[in-house]
């Protein structure tokens, strides 16, 4: 209604129930904000068993930014990125190790407990979980 009647260029809606997000997007809402989803992400990030957390959804691009904590028993610990079969449907953006920020390159070695941030599409998320041994 805001777009048609008041000529608003961009609309944002707060969702009480994240399950209704698709309906809002079909109605023409440009961006949705879900406090429920935000709180869930915060809780998941503090759980010791959860190593893979969605941080931000980029709906129009079909991408999301995810954070992964590399477990000690991951098959990639000690390997360089060039030696890991990473999915093409994602891109590693940042590694945080002992409060140091590392921009990943082919020569970057992955250590246990590294926090890895990646930009992935839906298919890439599952493939990245498999490659990094972070299936929960």
Short description:
The chain has 136 residues and is of the alpha+beta class. The protein is built from four helices and seven strands.
Helix content: 25-40%
Number of strand elements: 7
Shape: elongated
Structural class: alpha+beta
**What's the name of the CATH homologous superfamily of the domain at 49-132?**
Regulator of K+ conductance, C-terminal domain
Provide the spatial order of strands within the biggest beta sheet: 3-4-7-5-6
Rounded to the nearest angstrom, the distance between the terminal CA atoms is: 42 Å
Mean pLDDT: 81
Q: What is the highest CATH level, the class of the domain at 49-132?
A: Alpha Beta
Largest sheet: 5 strands, antiparallel
User: What Rg is obtained from the alpha carbons, in whole angstroms?
Assistant: 18 Å
What is the name of the CATH topology of the domain at 49-132?
Alpha-Beta Plaits
Number of helices: 4
Overview of this protein structure:
It is a single chain. The protein contains 4 helices and 7 strands, in the order αβαβαβββββα. The longest helix is centred in the first third of the chain and has 12 residues, at about 35-45. The protein is of the alpha+beta class. The strands form 2 sheets. It has a 5-stranded antiparallel β-sheet with strand order 3-4-7-5-6. A two-stranded parallel sheet has the order 1-2. It has a domain at about 50-130: Alpha-Beta Plaits. It has helices at about 1-5, 20-25, 35-45, 120-130, and strands spanning about 10-15, 30-35, 50-60, 65-70, 90-95, 100, 115-120. The chain starts with a helix and ends with a helix.
């Amino acid at each position: 209604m805001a777009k048609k009647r008041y000529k608003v260029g961009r609309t944002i809606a707060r969702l009480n129930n994240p399950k209704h997000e698709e309906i809002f997007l079909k109605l023409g809402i440009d961006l949705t904000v879900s406090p429920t989803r935000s709180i869930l992400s915060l809780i998941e990030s503090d759980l010791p068993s959860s190593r893979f957390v969605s941080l931000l959804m980029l709906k129009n691009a079909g991408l999301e930014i995810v954070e992964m904590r590399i477990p000690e028993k991951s098959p990639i610990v000690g390997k360089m990125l060039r030696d890991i079969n990473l999915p093409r449907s994602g891109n590693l953006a940042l590694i945080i190790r002992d409060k140091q920020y590392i921009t990943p390159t082919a020569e970057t070695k992955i250590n246990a407990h590294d926090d890895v941030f990646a930009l992935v599409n839906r298919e890439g998320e599952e493939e990245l979980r498999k490659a990094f041994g972070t299936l929960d």
